[in-house]
Amino acid sequence: MQSQDLLNIAQEHGSPVYVYDAHRIVSQYERLTSAFAQAKSLRIHYAVKALSNLSILKLFKQLGAGLDTVSLQEVQLGLAAGVEPHKIIYTPNGVSLEEIEQVAAMGVQINIDNLSILEQFGSKHPTIPVCVRINPHVMAGGNANISVGHIDSKFGISIHQIPHLLRIVENTKMTVNGVHMHTGSDILDIGVFLYATEILFETAAKFKDLEFIDFGSGFKVPYKEGDVATDIEDLGEQLSERFNKFCKDYGRDITLAFEPGKFLVSEAGYFLAKVNVVKQTTSTVFAGIDSGFNHLIRPMLYGSYHGIKNISNENGRNRFYSVVGYICETDTFAQNRQISEITEGDILAFANAGAYCYSMTSNYNSRYRPAEVLWYNGEAHLIRERETMEDILKHQVPVELALEELV
């Protein structure tokens, strides 16, 4: 996409607004499938939590992808997008047995990450095959909030509990048709990731009815020029070769599965916001925009970096700005960042806004969630309307109070 395209979208649909480039999503999907082309059977489950707009899910369906879901509602969204139930994997954490049973009744692949629920589910539904999520005790993610495979993580069944897991499977006569792991987001060292896969291969060999091994995801994307990213081609070559050897030793071919989210949609997304005020203080120049962490919380939550470009004045002289929001708390998107000279009314474009951005928006300060636009074949398509006050009030139930009765 060109900056003028983004400016046109901001003018037509207002700001703030999220924009997604469909062509970038397709190219990332094709890059991933090409990297693992040596695998005889490959399944990509797109992680719905990254960006759950129905139009995005339909795009992945057209590409042939399945879906990785973590809630009943994400499953329902996937089915609404037309994705077949058997192409959806459901990997919850800490949910009730009732929700898992409800999803299982839809024909979706269940992935269980704790022994208690595994035993309960296997005792009641021994004929429904399940996948089990293993915690390999490997720290392969970035920020602690998104590293989920280490020993203190709440996710997965510890590798040290495998004997107990096997007893449950034997006692309930249930079938385990898949094993799964997810070490966390922002994998920098594929050597560490490959070490974790060896643990998963060793575990997988203990089950005789496997149909797939799911290696999760967490592939790191670049956030700025010169940034380190997961070498997906190198990983694809090494892991495909190792996977094919496992299949040969296992005695039959099974499916290699991944569940990427950020890798597929992060770089396709832009967040556009208008500068309301340029404020000079004794030490800082603030660019205050018409948004806040109610629309983009990742910099405040994870300390994540989003490139920011002034698309209204791309060729202007670079100056230092702290880009901040309008929320009644500190919501700093960037501190002392070099950006081409900003004036009030300019449109700033935040990069890498496709993953975990809109999906984490809120109505904090009673602000509306922004619109979403899909850029496809040179045209902008509105795929979610901006909220209104009617949306804010929709589910509120006013109660008539007689003040004198409370005194």
TrEMBL record:
SUPFAM superfamilies given in the database record: Alanine racemase C-terminal domain-like, PLP-binding barrel
Record organism: Nonlabens arenilitoris
Protein name stated in the entry: Diaminopimelate decarboxylase
GO molecular function: diaminopimelate decarboxylase activity; pyridoxal phosphate binding
Assembly information from the UniProt record: Homodimer.
Domain annotation Orn/DAP/Arg decarboxylase 2 N-terminal: ranges: 24-266
Catalyses which reaction(s): meso-2,6-diaminopimelate + H(+) = L-lysine + CO2
Signal peptide segment: none
Enzyme class: lyase
Keyword Membrane carried by entry: no
